[in-house]
């Protein structure tokens, strides 16, 4: 069985770097845990860091957080479906919302459960995922803030999630202005401007984050230490908190090119033939992980001389080159990961998860 490892000390270092960064700027933040797919072992590691606020897009994952530590503030970060409103109110202290009818249902459920549910109203700022259009925001807020069992604690936005629209100073100033207008019109303070995700951290690092933006929701930079604009590791952070270790289940010298009539493989691909490779061979390792677990495009061998050739449903093929590099069947190869790769592996029941 392939193994996904979480390095406890590297995770802690990344957490400490982010904590200092936010504290220096007076910004609150919560950790987005959705990549962990509700894995109790890894969620426990998060909470052991001292995290007091966890964000997730799956109610069952927030329920797991509450089972581990009831005091952690849980935040549901996508519009809730009608049938799940009751469970969401039960396990989430806060939710992100952009539909008036949904908030009315949350209000009714909060009253029924005897709770005060906090909401962040999401505002559309150009990426065209969830969010209330700016010109409708005043009327929307007027309807919401009078509802029983509801407390509006913030305005928020998401960027770079669907169409790749990047955060900018101008867009975040726009959100800040909406907050000021609402507070002046209704005489009601809105504590949070929740405009920060991992992709917004570079604005903070370059001192371009507008005043008033005081809440971040961070996952990828915590787990991978990455500046998502420069696509490089932030100084002092680690990019290899997570690693995949996959066992070699076959290692043989084989031709570089397939033989026979070529058709589409199960992924709908047709192999491209480089005729200059006819007659040449290399050592190829087959590993015990495949497309059911992770897409090869999100894997990067620790040994830069290795090349991923492709994958089938449950096997990954790696080109070792002209020699075996001292490897043999039963040994493992290690891979660094991108976010979506780790997400797939964490969602796979066929990959063991271990803390190191």
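-> sequence recovered:
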């Amino acid at each position: 069985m392939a193994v996904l490892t979480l390095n406890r000390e590297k995770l802690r270092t990344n957490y400490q770097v982010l904590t200092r960064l936010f504290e220096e700027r007076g910004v609150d933040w919560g950790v987005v845990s959705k990549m962990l797919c509700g894995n109790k072992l890894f969620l426990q590691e998060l909470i052991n860091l001292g995290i007091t606020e966890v964000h997730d897009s799956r109610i069952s994952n927030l329920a797991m957080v509450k089972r581990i530590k009831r005091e952690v503030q849980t935040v549901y970060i996508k519009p809730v479906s009608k049938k799940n409103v009751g469970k969401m109110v039960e396990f989430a202290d806060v939710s992100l919302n952009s539909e008036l009818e949904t908030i009315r249902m949350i209000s009714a459920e909060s009253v029924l459960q005897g709770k005060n549910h906090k909401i962040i109203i999401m505002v559309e700022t150009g990426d065209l995922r969830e969010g209330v259009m700016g010109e409708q925001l005043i009327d929307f807020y007027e309807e919401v803030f009078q509802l029983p069992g509801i407390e509006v604690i913030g305005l928020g936005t998401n960027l770079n999630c669907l169409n790749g629209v990047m955060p900018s100073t101008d867009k975040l100033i726009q959100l800040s202005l909406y907050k000021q207008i609402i507070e002046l019109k209704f005489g009601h303070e809105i504590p949070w401007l929740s405009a920060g995700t991992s992709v917004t951290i570079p604005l903070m690092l370059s001192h371009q984050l507008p005043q008033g933006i005081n809440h971040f929701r961070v996952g990828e930079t915590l787990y991978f230490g990455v500046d998502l604009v420069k696509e490089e590791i932030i100084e002092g952070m680690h990019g290899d908190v997570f690693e995949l270790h996959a066992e070699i289940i076959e290692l043989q010298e084989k031709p570089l090119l397939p033989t026979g009539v070529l058709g589409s493989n199960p992924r709908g691909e047709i192999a491209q033939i480089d005729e200059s490779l006819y007659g040449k061979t290399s050592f190829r390792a087959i590993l015990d992980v495949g497309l059911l677990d992770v897409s090869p495009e999100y894997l990067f061998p620790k040994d830069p001389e290795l090349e991923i050739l492709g994958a089938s449903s449950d096997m990954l093929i790696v080109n070792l080159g002209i020699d075996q590099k001292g490897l043999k069947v039963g040994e493992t190869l290690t891979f660094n990961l991108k976010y979506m790769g780790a997400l797939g592996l964490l969602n796979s029941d066929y990959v063991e998860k271990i803390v190191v």
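The chain has a mean pLDDT of 94.
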